[in-house]
Every structure is written in structure tokens, then in C-alpha cells.
């Protein structure tokens, strides 16, 4: 290979590497932008079928409380760690699909599927030891002396039994759906 050809190959290789590097940065930025955008309260409640969930959430202590700390949809439904977060986002794409395809595009259709959808979330939370709850609520950070006698007793027993938050707190931010007659 002559010197001009070798120089050309070297320039092409450097250009290709540079483009791949810039492409990688753009790809990571786009993923980050997409995750941040879809983690907003506005995005989560933009589907009209989510309005019932939003009204329930607004009536909960996760929305309005004496401390002024607000937990949004993503705080409870999206993990903080990147791997589980990406997996959750991929799985959540089915909700957008079902909204667009008309499976849950009305409040009535959503309510008809609500028991099933809630159970999927509860099973995931049981499997991951209520990971998202524990971002804010951990047994070892609780001041049991500030809790009611009943709560203090139940939290102590739950910790001793290895229970997870969702075992007792299924209706915290949303009303617990009624089990349909044909559910199994």
C-alpha cells in the first residue's frame, strides 16, 4: 500500500471512529431524554384513561402532605438503577400500545382490566421487595416511636416476618380495585 492510500485509510478510520463516538453520545442523550420525558407526571397522566388514577393519586399523601414532599408516578413505578429502569420502560411500552390499540383507551375499558393490571404491579413489587417504596420508606429509617401503636406493631411484625410494603399497602396511592367474579 502506498503512502497516500495508507493516509486515506487512516483518515477514513479516524472519521469512522469519530462518527461512532458522536453517534454513541447522541444515542445515550436520546435514551436519557426519552426516560426523563416519560417519567414526568404530565406524561403519565396524558392518557385520558389515567385520569381516574390521577384523581386517586391527588387524594393520597404521596401527592399532598404536611412535609410538602411529593412522590410522582415514576417515584413509585420506575426503579432508580439503570438496568431495572430500562427493563421497566420496555415493559411499560405495552401500556402505550394498549392505549393506542384501544384495549384500555376508555375509563370503562381500563376499569375492566384494572384488577389484572394491579396484580401485575403487585407481583412485581413482591418480587423486588417493594424496591421503589424503599427508596423513601425503609424499616431501619422508620421512627417507630412516632407511629401509632397499631402501625408500630404492624411494621415491627412485618419486618420480623420478612414482609414487603405491598403486602399491606396495596391501596396507598390508588384505590384498590375490586376483584372480579371471574378472577383467578
Automatic annotation (TrEMBL):
**Membrane topology field:** Single-pass membrane protein
**Annotated positions binding heme 1:** 44, 47, 50, 95
Could you tell me where this protein is found in the cell?
A: Cell membrane
Q: Which InterPro entries match?
A: Cytochrome_c-type_ET, Multihaem_cyt_sf, NapC/NirT/NrfH, NapC/NirT_cyt_c_N, NapC/NirT_cytc_sf
* Modification comment: Binds 4 heme groups per subunit.
User: Which GO terms of the molecular function aspect are on file?
Assistant: electron transfer activity; heme binding; metal ion binding
Q: Which GO terms describe its cellular component?
A: plasma membrane
Q: Which residues bind a menaquinol?
A: 95
Can you tell me which residues bind heme 2?
Answer: 73, 76-77, 174
Positions contributing to heme 4 binding: 136, 165, 168-169
Using the record's annotation, list all stretches that form the NapC/NirT cytochrome c N-terminal domain: 13-178
Cofactor(s) needed, names only, are: heme
In which family does this protein belong, per the annotation?
Belongs to the NapC/NirT/NrfH family.
- Cross-referenced PANTHER family: CYTOCHROME C-TYPE PROTEIN, CYTOCHROME C-TYPE PROTEIN TORY
- This one is known as Cytochrome c-type protein
